[in-house]
Amino acid sequence: MDFEVALSGGTVSEGVVRVGETVRRPLRAHSPAVHGLLRHLEAVGFD
Q: If you count DSSP H runs as helices and E runs as strands, how many of each does the chain have, helices first?
């Protein structure tokens, strides 16, 4: 099981953590739009 490691530094790191080999940040107001864009790009085969 991977544990969360809080990341510090930079100007927008509040709530950013590393879990295993991924970096995760809290959802923000624009997150649903970004997720929609990424799903669209995947659906059209963008690589």
A: 1, 3
Strand partners, 17: 6, 24
- In the chain, the amino acid numbered 15 is G
Who's near 5: CB < 8 A, 6+ residues apart?
17, 18, 19
pLDDT for the residue numbered 4: 95
Rounded CA-CA distance 43/4 in Å is 31
**pLDDT tens digits, one per residue of 15-42:** 999 999 999 999 999 999 999 999 999 9
